[in-house]
Amino acid sequence: MTATAPLLPETRASLYDRWSARMAADPRLARRWAWLAPLLVTVLAGILRLWNLGHPHAFVFDETYYVKDAWTQWVLGYAATWPEGANEGFLAGDTDTFSTTGSFVVHPPLGKLLIGVGMAVFGADSSFGWRITTALFGTATVLLLYFVAKSMTGSIAFATVASFLMAIDGLAIVLSRVALLDMFLTFFILLAFWLVLLDRRTHMDRLAALVAERSTGEAPAWGPVFWNRPWIMAAGAAAGAATGVKWSGLYVIAGLGIYLVVTDALARRRAGVRLWPADAAFRQGAVTFVLFVPVALIVYLTSWIGWLGTEGGYGRQAATDTPVTGFWSWVPPALQSLWIYHRAIYDFHVGLTAGHGYASPAWQWPLLLRPTSMYYNSTPQGTAGCGATNGCVENIYSMPNPLIWYAGVAAVLYLVYRLVVTRDWRCAFVLTGVAVTYLPWLLYPERTMFQFYTIAILPFVLLALTFALRDIAGAPDADAYRRISGQRIVLVFLLVAIALAVFWYPILTGTPVPYLFWQAHNWIQSWI
Question: Looking at residue 397, what DSSP letter applies?
């Protein structure tokens, strides 16, 4: 007699699956959540970034450079020098002690121009004013990540999880609350990628349709060439703006250009174009270059309009003092001077090896060994609410949510495996984002770098993590038990991530906390 396994009771669908079925059956409910989900996540992101934004009324990390440069650039059109001891006077409200002598700055002007907008509106001596634009761009980046994720998958849940993780991540919060350049850079990079996604949505279908229409039974040797691709021009403008904030935007221009050519080549192969490599590289590729790169160059040069339109900027008269002869003599002196200035900036960046206590080379970034302490202040023992012995600590620490970061790094590796196995274009898209924002930094191992540079990588890491969480939650055609088990794991992950976000938030925002509470965040010897 053979024993038989007991019958298991039928498992009811998970709460999420029942909710999804309800939305599928009710288009009005689906439309409501299509705008309510991003709105709620964006409001949460805004609250976390705007609360007590003006604290501390002090220069946090490199704000000592960018804030003063932003103000002189706003007033004079270029960054100018300040006298010794200018920081104390500036913080006290004496914001006009700058000279008219140009100052050597090593980043393009766009990010400082955006900082200057807030200072012009709220006052140069307002710490809220010099941080408000980074906070707004940081909040907008969360919403933008929602749109990117939604464009890739069509899933409200997927997009909500990806953007929610960025809304609560500590690194994203800190870089949105200090007047540095990296949040502007991140926004424009992510915007460029989103615009490329919008182009893909129409380009692939148009290509396949035209090839099929022109085919007469034999596969065509050449495919159509498309000039009408406005999203590519817009993506070029966004990439040019990223470069106008920091030169690392150049890698985005190069990476997206390669991505566009490769994806077009693969699409032409699928459509049956016989000479698809040459077709994509030399015909459509040349057109894509014309649509993409010149727009980026124009936007980048426009970011220098204040320096070009005035006479006092650093190096502004270099070509006038030493005229260029020969072939390049036709170039206007202002542009010649700009080129000379760029060479000096390049020499500075590649030769930057000054030591710093919180420096972290790029190979360390995935391991999260040395986040950056941007501000630290302690109050005496016995201060009310701070305990009787150790006093209080105010710290602004650019710490990613540890669970989100380490899980995200693992998810990137998982996405590499998934790309090899499934050839999913979405994996390639996300990994392109990771590659252009991370791999170039490995080329300069001796250069002084900081962990917070990973803010530009973070949106793509979070997309990889969300893909991994979706796979853990179970495929739509999996049985109910598998779906419930997977979704519970995802729910536990999100709840722990929220708990860690609450635990770390005071250390991200300079909130006074007892010393022992601050010390409890020192999980690794190199932290805090």
Answer: E
- The whole-number pLDDT of residue 151 equals 95
Location of structure tokens 């899980």: 407
CB 269 within 8 A of CB 215: no
C-beta of residue 276 within 8 angstroms of C-beta of residue 263? no
Length of the chain: 528
Transcribe 333-385 into DSSP letters. Answer: HHHHHHHHHHHHHHHHHHT-----TT---GGGGGGT----EEEEEEE-TT-TT
Q: Name the nearest CA neighbour of 449 among 343, 367, 396, 371.
A: 371
β-bridge partners, 102: 80
Is pTM beyond 0.70 here?
Answer: yes
DSSP lists the bridge partners of residue 395 as 376
Decide: 165 and 497 in contact? Cβ < 8 Å.
yes
Element (H, E) at 23: helix 15-25
- Tokens representing 520 are 């409890």
pLDDT, tens digit (0-9, with 9 covering 90-100), for 423-473: 999 999 999 999 999 999 999 888 889 999 999 999 999 999 999 999 999
Task: Show the CA angle centred on residue 157, arms to residues 459 and 26, nearest 5°.
Answer: 150
Q: For residue 396, give the 3-state DSSP assignment.
A: strand
What's the token pair of residue 273? 């174009």
User: Taking CA 358 as the corner, what is the angle to CA 352 and CA 364, rounded to the nearest 5 degrees?
Assistant: 85
Distance CA 252, CA 299 (A): 15
Question: How far is the C-alpha of 471 from the C-alpha of 482, rounded, in Å?
Answer: 11
Cα separation, 183 vs 174, whole angstroms = 10
Walk across the sheet containing 513-514 and list its strands.
Answer: 373-379, 392-397, 513-514
Contact of 507 with 399, CB cutoff 8 Å: yes
Burial class (CB in 10 A: 0-12, 13-18, 19+), 213: exposed
Element (H, E) at 324: none
The 8-class DSSP code of residue 102 comes to B
- Rounded to whole angstroms, how far apart are CA atoms 518 and 506? 9
Predicted pLDDT at 216: 62
**pLDDT tens digits for 295-304?**
999 999 999 9
Tokens of 221: 């040797």
Report the alpha-carbon distance of residue 143 to residue 139 in Å, rounded. Answer: 7
Q: How far is CA 174 from the centre of its chain?
A: 13
In DSSP notation, 456-501 reads GTHHHHHHHHHHHHHHHH--TTS-HHHHHHHHHHHHHHHHHHHHHH
Angle between helices 127-153 and 156-168 (to 10 degrees): 150
End-to-end Cα distance, the chain: 67
Tell me the C-alpha distance between 194 and 201, whole Å: 11
Answer positive or negative: Cα dihedral of 9, 12, 14, 17. Answer: positive
